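Its record is set out here:
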Amino acid sequence: QVVFALNQTLLQQESLRAGSFQIPYTTEDLIKHYNCGDLSSIIFNHDTSQVPNFINATLPAHERITAQEIDSYFRQELIYKRNERMGRRVKDLLDEYPDKSFFFAFGAGHFMGNNTVIDVLRREGYEVEHTPAGQAI
């Protein structure tokens, strides 16, 4: 699986460099949607947007199964479990020190797709509000 994942990643990078494959959004698009709090937009609605996409229709059936297994593993280990850990850490601090103020900073990856840090905190009963760029806290 590791060799397969490396090969697929290299093929994807070679396609990007050759111009035969393009990402459907730019870094500026990501920044704009993030700053506007538009975390449910199509850009931020892909669970695997942080990791290479190994699944494509041109793969033979046996390789497609491998790609799906790797994609599932990445989604579970690198996204869902990570966000669950981060959300629980925030919750634990808030519960342990209810009279203190906190400022938590996360990378945009913690807000993409499903099962985000925000989702974890909301499931725990916390109210989470977006503060637009430039607005005083």
Summary: The radius of gyration is 18 Å. The chain has four helices and no strands.
